Amino acid sequence: xxxxxxxxxxxxxxxxxxxxxxxxxxxxxxxxxxxxxxxxxxxxxxxxxxxxxxxxxxxxxxxxxxxxxxxxxxxxxxxxxxxxxxxxxxxxxxxxxxxxxxxxxxxxxxxxxxxxxxxxxxxxxxxxxxxxxxxxxxxxxxxxxxxxxxxxxxxxxxxxxxxxxxxxxxxxxxxxxxxxxxxxxxxxxxxxxxxxxxxxxxxxxxxxx
Length: 209
Known about the structure:
This protein is an alpha/beta fold. It has one domain (about 1-205): NADP-dependent oxidoreductase domain (TIM Barrel), CATH 3.20.20. It contains six helices and eleven strands. α1 (about 30-40) crosses α2. The two termini are about 20 Å apart. Mean pLDDT is about 90; it is low at about 195-200.
């Protein structure tokens, strides 16, 4: 395992993002979560934190979540900060532990500067207080809007992006030594997020294993 950017921790090449299968069978969630824990990798519980978080709680897995997209509706910085804090409290209560390993801000900007500042203030406070270990950026919107925000706010240890976004966002990730995860096409029904170093770490997302 290679060190993941400026986090300076080794992470596996494949991360798992859990989702419900199209045709779930009885007991599917327990089987999925048991398989994810056994894989000994980072587990993304963003899709169903209440369900997946409870099933992997207390088993020692590295956990990540994506959230904060609702900051785009905030009228000021304190409101945006409240959105992030509420999301973190919710996720931490689901996994029944005192910290989240990775929290990715879901940015589909452009946002107002107050919205950005409030979200980043909340994330930095959470990191200082030990509620999150590493702050990430989920580039879910227009690449140029993400790049414009990111150039002025070097607050992230990792970035999650699509393959099409890599030519635009990848160079800044390399320049800032930010760990990069790439969303790729589905493999046997499981979408994959792949880290850009060699050997290539991936983040597999799926409802079946």
